[in-house]
Amino acid sequence: MLTKKKINLRLISQILFFIIIAAITVNHSLAEQGSAVEAVPSASIHAVCPFGGVVSIYRFVTQGSFVQKVHEASFSLMVIVFFSAVLFGPVFCGWVCPFGSFQEWVGKLGRRFFGRRYNSLVPRKADRLLGYLRYLVLVWVVYATAVSAKLVFSTYDPYSALFTFWTSEVQLTAVAILILVILASLFVERPWCKYACPYGALLGLTNLVRPFSIRREPSTCISCGKCDRTCPMNIKVSESTNVRDTRCISCMECTSGSACPVKETVELTAPSPRRSANEAE
Predict the structure, then answer these.
(1) Which of 61, 63, 106, 233 can bridge 185 by disulfide, Cβ–Cβ 3.0-4.6 Å?
(2) What's the whole-model pTM score?
(3) Residues of the chain with pLDDT under 50
(4) 213-216 vs 266-269, strand pairing mode
(5) What pLDDT score was predicted for residue 281?
(6) How many other CB atoms are there within 10 angstroms of residue 61's CB atom?
(7) Are 153 and 198 in contact (CB under 8 A)?
(8) What is the pLDDT of residue 277?
(9) CA–CA dist 241, 136 (Å, integer)
């Protein structure tokens, strides 16, 4: 069972990684001015983003080099994040990604304004259809990067803009998209993650095969709907026995001890032959 203490650990994880990325990117800017803090790494934000490794795969395989601005550290991070996702789903999205965390924190203001209506203002069908946009973004980014050998997404990346908006590196298009995401976060939780993030789209596919998944026990479920209302990605957990939705970010907010008021009803569990047989029936 996931306890309240573990949910607090998620917040600690989000804050910690946000501070780490902020410190690294600020120090990178200071390094260019000759005043970096030696105790803090001074890599660019692209060097510490695992998605940089994804878009560099084609160039690395064909030419043995990385795309412009991408560091080998991105490759290492990509491998680590991928294998953790294969086991547990997109934990990077729910527990680590600073931009996802930032959207959540902005969303708290929206929740104050709209209460229970927050994150449900977009009709369910439209919400599902808009979710496919991020796959189109993923295909475009990978193709455009492979063809140009440049990190084309940096021109539009709001994540990069969030941590470099005060430097000469930032692109105005990225800042404009960042502002739109901030405004959208007041109405929809994690709008970038839901509708546009190419890395979230890729990691979300691991939900289809992950062995450790979120399962709901129908026999003890009281159909209160709290798991549905809590889910930042608008997944109908109450309608699933085994949550395999590609939008799941493994945040665990829907589980027993958090949103679900009934013990051992919604949990992150390991696979078992008996459970797999029952789900197949």
Answers:
(1) 106
(2) 0.88
(3) 1-7, 276-281
(4) antiparallel
(5) 42
(6) 8
(7) yes
(8) 46
(9) 29
Domain(s) of CATH 3.30.70: residues in the chain:
212-275
Give the gyration radius of the chain's Cα atoms. Answer: 20
Which of 133, 120, 107, 129 is closest to 234 using CA atoms?
Answer: 120
Place of tokens 């795309």: 67
Which tokens belong to 143? Answer: 């193709």
Q: Are 58 and 43 in contact (CB under 8 A)?
A: no
Using a CB cutoff of 8 Å and minimum separation of 24, what contacts does 57-65 make?
Answer: 58/142, 58/145, 58/146, 59/145, 59/146, 59/149
Under CATH, what is the fold of the domain 212-275?
A: Alpha-Beta Plaits (3.30.70)
Residue type, 141: V
pLDDT score, position 2: 43
For 14, other C-beta atoms within 10 Å of its C-beta total 21
Report the distance separating Cα 81 and Cα 189, nearest Å. Answer: 23
CA distance 138 to 19: 27
Q: Cβ of 69: how many Cβ atoms within 10 Å?
A: 18
